[in-house]
Write a structure and sequence with these properties.
Elements lengths: L17 H28 L3 H30 L1
Amino acid sequence: MQDLSIWLRSPNNSALTKEQFNSYLDEKASEKQRWLAKIEDFDKKYPGAVEEWFKLFNESKKQLTFNSRETQRRLLVNA
């Protein structure tokens, strides 16, 4: 396995040490836990709201994908 320091870079473009990388991962994990806790609290206050939001979000993603494909198709047909 290649040395991770080859491609892991800090903002000043120096290679990250193993400790810096582990610190970064810990920070991201705790950030994720905070967001999950917020979502759970919101879901307790408004049961079903989070599930409904995800349904709407996924539907909008499908629609955007469809619109993009439809636009591409129209461009090809009209070319």
